Amino acid sequence: MTTPLPAADPLTAARAALARDDLAVAGTILRERLRADRDDPAALDGWAECGLRQGRLDAACWALARIAHRRPEDGAALDRLGQACLQARDTRAALAAFSAAQALDPRDALACNGIGLCHLLDDQPAAALEPLARAAAADPRDASILVNGAQARQRAGDLPGAVVWIERAAKLAPKATTLVHASLLREAGDCARAWTLLGLLGAEERAQPQVQLEAVRCLRELGRVDAALDLLAGFDRQWPQTADFHEQMGHCLAAPEQAAQRHAHWCHAVELLFGQRRLRRARSLLEHLLGQAPHLARGWLLRGMLELAVADDAQAEAALRQALACDGGLLGARWRLASLLEQGNRIEPARAVLAQTPTPPTPDAVASDDDCTQWHLVDCRLALREGRPEAALAIAAALMQHPLDEPSRLRLQFERGRALDRLDRVAEAMAAFAAGNAWARQAWQRQNPGPNPFLAEVDACLAHARHGGLDRWPALAPSAPDGEPDPIFVVGFPRSGTTLVEQALAGNSHLQVLMEAATAVRMRDIVAAMPDGYPQAIGALDEFDRRYLRTAYFDAVAGACTRDRQRLLVDKMPLQMTRAALIARVFPRARWVFLARHPADACLSCFMQNFAPNPAMANFHTLADTVQLYVRTMALWELYRERLGLVVHTVHYHRLVTDFDGQMAALCAFLGVPVEADQARFAERARSGRRIATPSYEQVSQPLHRGAIDRWQRYRTWLEPYLPRLQPFIDRYAG
């Protein structure tokens, strides 16, 4: 009788799967192994390898960080962690890992090079020089270190030093360094030698776009502009509509009589760079353009658009005003400035900007000019803000006679709906909101086919909680491991008053309010990359994971604001309550402020908003979907609140509106801070010009009023089918 062979060792099988690049099989084996022992170094190593090969960098970084935590004296493990973090563009974590490795071995070339790269990525070339010098001394035969050192010197302004370093690299790897070598020689003024170097490349290498662009730069600086233009003509045929092409064309058209063409090419290059989110490069080119043409209105318009993209409203306003000073008829600058002022609740200045249009565009111009359309849309919005809904409807009616693109049609229907609502023409208002939402739904589903991921996440969390997922958590130490107090989380279903409370709390000098940053999303993504996935892995989180996630959270905070540790952090994100289990595991001493509003009012208000598209807001395109999300979200919140013993202070919207001082006093007592007079001046602050990035920016600029309480009664006909599902929550939150 033959004895059966023993089953293959799982880790051996996983390694074999990795060797044949069968990542799905390897991942399945490693997942099961790590569920049994999440500190198995071989399994963690394999999980990291799978993550790196599949581009799941959160998985790789978590596994390598766990290995490094278990083996703090292992410099190689720290180096691998640093490299993975660099791939993920997490320079803070990468720098910490490389610095720890370098502390173990000052001659660790990989660590020193990694430290230098972190500084380069953080735009600190001077700080990169010393670690890269140490890396080169430790491994003088590594050409990549020398290339990094050359680039650091170039960006630090030391071109002669950069050339010395790149020539050392070229001796080790001449072909691999040719392009950088030629570029540095050209910048140092040796264009002839740079051109010669490029000529040594093979035909296939010379055909690469970056090589051709460098050849254009060399030819231009050698005075061979016609040859450069010939190269660019071929470049445009092969890679049309690229920012690099238009930038170089502008440089080649250097004659005074070619200024208009030159500036047009540079402006187009900037627009293309915007589309690619290459904002630093766009800023550099704009500065060059405006330095040459300080009276170019289009250049200032682009500068204003750049500042809007990075949310620098003051600089955006200044640039747009400068554009209009150069050309008062530039509609693109005029409607953007008026819109910026309106979003900052500066209604009279916004109207003044539109009123100063030298030749106001007629509706007939809409079909051929998007700037005309946007001008009229801002005019419509301002008419509403000025209390002139009939005028807003007239503007909308004129616009609807012309073909509009989808975003404009969508926005117009929401503006019509608001105007009709204010005139109490509720049936027409609902029809307008339904039309706007239908277009929004189509646009979303076209770009995001399949089930809604946010709703799927809520359902997964509900199933997890209902089937005992909250009952088996091992205890963690209650103290904050990093010295940071646990934050205060302001949550609630959207349109329930969270922005009003946020604005009031922002007036308290003891609090620092963070407005709708994706802090818990970052933690969710990391947990989803763990072997158990999200939300199942929440119960398996240990003290290492907690520290890891807290660090990720506060890194996300630092990316959104300059943290003031003298003040308590208030994190306002309405639907963050759906991730309360994860937050409670990471921040067991967190306090929660929950905003409750009549469910029918909250759902109706969400349906009536033209939200920026994302997976959560995509659930508001129909009343049925809105109610579905409300019921599931609130069911999950109530499960979390009861099972996890969350410390919650509930603020009822209708009480906040009718007794603001009393509600603020109770809330501040809960938070342990004194009430301050500036908290009541939220409307005044909202009119100070700073944009509030939520649809509530208009409401919080006004004195408190009862107009939004029981608004749903006017729309009862449309809400009636959903009231039975909402009734349990009406009983709890409408009183």
Please name the defining characteristics of this protein.
globular; Rossmann fold; single chain; Serine Threonine Protein Phosphatase 5, Tetratricopeptide repeat; mainly alpha; 735 residues
Fold and architecture overview:
With 735 residues, the chain is mainly α. Among the domains are: 10-192, Tetratricopeptide repeat domain (Serine Threonine Protein Phosphatase 5, Tetratricopeptide repeat, Alpha Horseshoe); 361-450; 453-511 and 568-575 and 582-733, P-loop containing nucleotide triphosphate hydrolases (Rossmann fold, 3-Layer(aba) Sandwich), CATH 3.40.50.300. Helices cover 63% and strands 4% of the residues. The protein has 38 helices and five strands. The model is unreliable at 1-7 (pLDDT under 50).
CATH superfamily of the domain at 453-511 and 568-575 and 582-733: P-loop containing nucleotide triphosphate hydrolases
Shape: globular
Total beta strand runs: 5
Average pLDDT across residues?
Answer: 92
* Content of β-strand: under 5%
- Provide the CATH topology of the domain at 453-511 and 568-575 and 582-733: Rossmann fold
The end-to-end span amounts to 78 Å
Roughly how much helix do the residues carry, as a percent range? 55-70%
Structural Rg: 30 Å
Which stretches are poorly predicted, pLDDT < 50 over at least 5 residues?
1-7
Largest sheet: 5 strands, parallel
- Helix/strand-derived category reads mainly alpha
Widest sheet, order of strands = 2-3-1-4-5
Q: Examine the secondary-structure arrangement and name the CATH architecture of the domain at 453-511 and 568-575 and 582-733.
A: 3-Layer(aba) Sandwich
- CATH top level of the domain at 453-511 and 568-575 and 582-733 is Alpha Beta
- How many individual helices? 38
